[in-house]
């Protein structure tokens, strides 16, 4: 079967590099990728980590996620928005995360932008107003970006967010189930009722 690999547990999963042998990666794929997230904290974390992933593998970020949470106050927007020069220097010295000046500054800036959104506008509403009107066929190539993700990136930048290009925006849309990019023969896709609701969580698997 194209674009999937069969792992040791007998389940066919999207053919992400390293997923065959990494159980943490499998749990993330099965339980989180494509599952809806609605709270500001969840969405801010996803947006931040997708930005940090730019130019790196997602598995690298996943393995550092707990360190990122520790470093960024569990991605509570109110806390990160108040980070100062000392926090920036602390982050740049933290070898457990990705020490990238532009990405760290963008994360702090984006927390402030989130808190400054106009009344009645949320990060969730900004994202979901760019939900595609038509579904991508399961056997179609997975794009790196789409017109909808380009429009989302433009909308986020207009509201003061940074380091949110069309590719990063699309990766977040995939991660939170705005689009369903699990492959046709991936076992998770068979449990997905709609592209926006995301896959069901296996009841027997541990959380990532």
From TrEMBL:
Q: One Pfam match, by short name?
A: Adenine_glyco
Q: Which residues form the signal peptide?
A: none
InterPro entries in the record:
Adenine_glyco, DNA-3mA_glycosylase, DNA_glycosylase
Q: Under which name does UniProt file this protein?
A: DNA-3-methyladenine glycosylase I
């Amino acid at each position: 079967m194209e674009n999937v690999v069969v792992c040791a547990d007998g389940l066919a999963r999207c053919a992400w590099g390293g997923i065959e042998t990494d159980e943490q990666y499998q749990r993330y794929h099965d339980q989180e990728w494509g599952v809806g997230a609605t709270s500001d904290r969840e969405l801010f974390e996803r947006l931040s980590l997708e930005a940090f992933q730019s130019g790196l593998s997602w598995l690298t970020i996943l393995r550092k996620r707990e360190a990122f949470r520790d470093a960024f106050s569990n991605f509570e927007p109110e806390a990160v928005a108040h980070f100062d020069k000392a926090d920036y220097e602390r982050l740049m010295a933290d070898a457990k995360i990705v020490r990238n000046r532009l990405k760290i500054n963008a994360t702090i800036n984006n927390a402030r932008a989130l808190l400054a959104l106009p009344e009645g506008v949320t990060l969730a509403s900004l994202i979901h107003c760019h939900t595609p009107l038509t579904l991508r066929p399961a056997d179609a190539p997975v794009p790196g970006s789409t017109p909808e993700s380009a429009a989302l990136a433009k909308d986020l930048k207009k509201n003061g967010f940074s380091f949110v290009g069309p590719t990063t925006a699309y990766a977040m849309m995939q991660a939170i189930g705005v689009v369903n990019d699990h492959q046709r023969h991936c076992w998770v896709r068979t449990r997905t009722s709609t592209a926006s609701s995301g896959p069901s969580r296996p009841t027997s698997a541990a959380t990532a």
